[in-house]
Amino acid sequence: xxxxxxxxxxxxxxxxxxxxxxxFSLPVWxxxxxxxxxxxxxxxxxxxxxxxxxxxxxxxxxxxxxxQARKLNNQLAAERTRNNALSQDAQSILKQLxxxxxxxxxxxxxxGMPKIRLVPTRNEGGGRGGxxxxxxxxxxxxxxxxxxxxxxxxxxxxxxxxxxxLKREAATPYGYPLRGQTRITSYFGYRRNxxxxxxxxxxxxxxxxxxxxxxxxxxxxxxxxxxWKGPFGLAVVVDHGYGYRTLYGHxxxxxxxxxxxxxxxxxxxxxxxxxxxTGPHLHxxxxxxxxxxxxxxxxx
Length: 300
Ligand SMILES: [Zn+2]
Prior knowledge:
Layout: E1 9-14, E2 22-27, H1 29-110, H2 137-171, E3 189-192, E4 199-202, E5 205-208, E6 214-216, E7 221-228, E8 234-241, E9 244-254, E10 261-262, E11 267-271, E12 281-288, E13 291-293
Antiparallel strand pairs: 1-2, 3-4, 5-12, 6-11, 7-8, 7-10, 8-9, 9-11, 9-12, 12-13
This protein binds zinc ion.
Zinc ion is lined by residues 186, 202, 204, 206, 283.
């Protein structure tokens, strides 16, 4: 006998107080549907909740990223400004170095040293086009730092030589012993004897001047004689070092003492006519390593 399949049915009792219970008879698909709907609904909720959480986290990430981007941008702008400033600094350093080089070379020239070149010109080594093309920042900074070291070396090299040169120049007799008076009545060499017959050797130059005219030393040095000196009358002899000495004769008075240090232009005495003299004038002699030399070479 074939088994008859009855469709499964669920019966729902609804209990009521003071009344008979109500019964519902439901086909099986209804509770299945209800369970399915509930499942779908809660699944949707979970999905929605996950999406929201994801969105929130993405949003947070986005905010943080845009914040980072903004910070980087600021840094970049600051960096750019700094680089520009640096580049300008480097250029100005280079210019200053060029000025310094010129000054150093002037000093080296004065010190009797050969010229040097420290700052390379733009077109040198690299074929950079045009003098107006700005050098690379790094390049300029590299040169600048190299040259600064080179400069200080060159300066310390020049300094003693220059000091020596200036000292020698200050000491070497130069110019006229009487200010504004360049007339000469008797030159260095053989001349007719002003007091008698024949010729005599005149070991200096005679400058005519009024009594009392200031006589000034022609270079820095030390007074080694001050007083009567035979035919030169009242005279002053100054030792300049470097083998130089100068003599100022026929003075009416002496203004310095032996041992006194003098700078060029200092007063040594006043014009007179003491000693072997025919009238007021200054007799001026220059000695080089003990020999009398022509002072004409030391006047200008
Ligand atoms: Zn003379």
